[in-house]
Amino acid sequence: MSLESFEDSQKTAAANNRLQLELDLNRRDVKDEVVLLEAPSLDALRLTHQRYFKNFSELASGSTG
Known about the structure:
By secondary structure, the protein is an all-alpha fold. The protein is built from three helices and no strands. The longest helix has 17 residues, at about 10-25.
Protein backbone atom coordinates (compact mmCIF):
# COMPACT_ATOMS: atom_id res chain seq x y z
CA MET A 1 0.00 0.00 0.00
CA SER A 2 1.14 3.53 -0.66
CA LEU A 3 -0.42 6.77 0.45
CA GLU A 4 0.08 10.24 -0.96
CA SER A 5 -1.49 13.40 0.46
CA PHE A 6 -2.61 16.45 -1.48
CA GLU A 7 -3.85 19.86 -0.37
CA ASP A 8 -7.39 20.95 -1.22
CA SER A 9 -5.96 23.22 -3.90
CA GLN A 10 -4.37 20.19 -5.60
CA LYS A 11 -7.53 18.19 -6.39
CA THR A 12 -6.84 18.18 -10.13
CA ALA A 13 -3.27 17.02 -9.55
CA ALA A 14 -4.53 14.27 -7.25
CA ALA A 15 -7.03 13.07 -9.85
CA ASN A 16 -4.37 13.12 -12.57
CA ASN A 17 -1.96 11.22 -10.32
CA ARG A 18 -4.61 8.57 -9.62
CA LEU A 19 -5.30 8.17 -13.33
CA GLN A 20 -1.61 7.81 -14.19
CA LEU A 21 -1.14 5.19 -11.47
CA GLU A 22 -4.16 3.25 -12.68
CA LEU A 23 -2.99 3.35 -16.30
CA ASP A 24 0.50 2.21 -15.32
CA LEU A 25 -0.86 -0.69 -13.26
CA ASN A 26 -3.21 -1.66 -16.07
CA ARG A 27 -0.35 -1.70 -18.61
CA ARG A 28 1.55 -4.05 -16.28
CA ASP A 29 -1.58 -6.19 -15.72
CA VAL A 30 -1.50 -5.47 -11.98
CA LYS A 31 -4.94 -5.77 -10.42
CA ASP A 32 -4.38 -3.40 -7.49
CA GLU A 33 -7.06 -0.90 -6.57
CA VAL A 34 -6.29 2.81 -6.87
CA VAL A 35 -8.55 5.14 -4.92
CA LEU A 36 -8.83 8.85 -4.34
CA LEU A 37 -10.32 9.67 -0.94
CA GLU A 38 -11.02 12.95 0.82
CA ALA A 39 -11.10 13.43 4.59
CA PRO A 40 -10.36 16.18 7.11
CA SER A 41 -7.43 14.16 8.53
CA LEU A 42 -5.54 10.90 8.18
CA ASP A 43 -7.13 9.69 11.43
CA ALA A 44 -10.60 10.32 9.98
CA LEU A 45 -9.63 8.44 6.83
CA ARG A 46 -8.35 5.49 8.89
CA LEU A 47 -11.67 5.42 10.74
CA THR A 48 -13.98 5.70 7.74
CA HIS A 49 -11.97 3.51 5.35
CA GLN A 50 -10.48 0.87 7.64
CA ARG A 51 -10.25 -1.76 4.91
CA TYR A 52 -7.37 0.15 3.33
CA PHE A 53 -5.35 0.23 6.55
CA LYS A 54 -6.02 -3.15 8.22
CA ASN A 55 -5.51 -6.74 7.24
CA PHE A 56 -8.37 -9.21 6.94
CA SER A 57 -8.02 -10.67 10.45
CA GLU A 58 -8.08 -7.20 12.01
CA LEU A 59 -11.22 -6.33 10.07
CA ALA A 60 -12.90 -9.64 10.93
CA SER A 61 -12.17 -9.22 14.64
CA GLY A 62 -13.72 -5.74 14.68
CA SER A 63 -10.51 -4.21 16.00
CA THR A 64 -10.74 -0.39 16.05
CA GLY A 65 -7.15 0.28 17.08
